[in-house]
Each structure stands twice: as structure tokens, then as C-alpha cells.
Amino acid sequence: MRDIIIFMKKILGGIRDVCRDFELISENDVIAVGVSGGKDSIVLLKALALYRYFSPAKFTLKAITLDMGLFSPDTDAIGDFCRELQVDYHVEHTQIGNVVFEIRGESNPCSLCANMKRGVLCSTAKELGCNKLALGHHFDDALETLFLNLFYGGRMATFSPTSYLDRSDITVIRPMIYASEGDVVDCAKRNALPVFKSGCPADGFTKREDIKRFISETEKTYPDVKKKFLKALKSKSTQRLWYDG
Q: How far apart (Å, rounded) are the C-alpha atoms in residues 82 and 88?
């Protein structure tokens, strides 16, 4: 376990810090982790499973995977991973993929798909006795969302590390919000975690991918731009940029 913890040091350190800054985890929380099988959700699940041993507040973990209907992850392999981590696992069958890509035929499907998935995850988490839902968003996701909202919506905002959703009576938390995508990729590789390729038909062809390329080009001129944005978002004077979403 010691080697694994060393390989996950940045991720676990970031989780500790964001939990401290935003009080993400409280005593006796029952936290559902949305597990798609991608690197972000798999690393988050592994990290939270380890964090159970170090967290000041004791909490219980459960894992939920959505069968999207049109495309589905390898739930058998994810189930094996959950058993290894001693985490209860649930698969929720949906028709989200069919609705987004076949019935609606969305040209930019990400927003609708994300909202539908979050709604089902929240309702499923509630049914399983959870009071919180953990999602695998990292800082690169937050930064990309900031630029997406600016360029396409004309507003300066990104999602919050913690959001209470009164309609579902679930608090959504994002424990890896201080971690970079590079840290997540490195963690998944060095720990040989079982990561599965997305079956989404829009994967790699979205507005978010355009923003990702924009940030990558900006880094060539300003190599520390991501660190500066993270510092800005951590500042109390600019935390209004976080929003409940």
C-alpha cells in the first residue's frame, strides 16, 4: 500500500486540501461515486477508497455506473475493481444515449447528456441511501468550463467543488478539483488502474475539445497559465466564479 500511496500522493493531497477548504466530507457521510470507467472516475474511486483510512471524518463509499443504452462501459470489469476496493457497486440501466444521440440528435450533446446523467446519478444515489455524490472532475475540467461559459455564454463562471441540489436532496462534491489532468493520467498509469475507453460517439469532437486545444496553445506562450488560474480560483476574492452546477 505504501507504494500506491506514494504514486497517488498528489491526488490524495489535493483531496485533503479541497475537503478542508470546502468541507466536502462530514462524519458518517454515505458517498456515491459516479464511475464511468474513464480515468477520472476510476482514479477518484481508488483515491477515495484510500482516503477512507486517513480522512478525519469517517465515511462510506458506494459506486454507481450508468448503462447509457446506446453505449455502455465494461460493468463486469468495473465490478471486479469495486470488489477489490471493498466498495458496493450498482449499475443503473438508462436510455440516455438513445435520447441524446438518436431521438434528439444533438449536434452538441455534452450539456444535455451531462445534465441527464447527473439527474439519474443523484436519484440513484438517493435510492441507495447516499447523501452525497462524488464526481471525477479535475481542475482542467473546471478551467475548460470557465472558458466554455465565457466564449459561448458570455459569463465568467465554472462549477463549484460542492453543490447542494435541493430537488434531489443530494450534495454533489468534486474532490479532485485541485488536481490537474496530468496528475490524474500519471496516477492511472503508475498504479495500472483499469481504465476503459469511452464509447461516446461524440468523444473527441466537442466544443470542450476545442477549448482544450485553445488552452494547450496558450500554454506554449504562458507555461504556468493553469497554475495561475488555479491560484485565482482558490482566492477568496474570486470564489464567486464557482457556481452551483
A: 7
Q: Which residue has the cell 459516479?
A: 34
Chain segment 16-61, per-residue pLDDT in tens: 999 999 999 999 999 999 999 999 999 999 999 999 999 999 999 9
Taken as a whole, the chain contains a residue count of 245
DSSP track, 69-103? SSS---HHHHHHHHHHHT-EEEEEE--HHHIIIII
Whether the Cβ atoms of residue 242 and residue 160 lie closer than 8 Å to each other: yes
Per-residue pLDDT tens digits for 144-163 = 999 988 888 888 888 889 99
Sequence-ordered strand ranges (E) for the chain? 29-34, 59-67, 88-93, 132-134, 158-159, 162-165, 170-173, 242-243
Radius of gyration, alpha carbons of the chain: 17
Cell triple for 53 = 483510512
d(CA 118, CA 96): 11
Q: What is the Cα–Cα distance from 100 to 97, expressed in whole angstroms?
A: 5
- Grid coordinates belonging to 222: 504562458
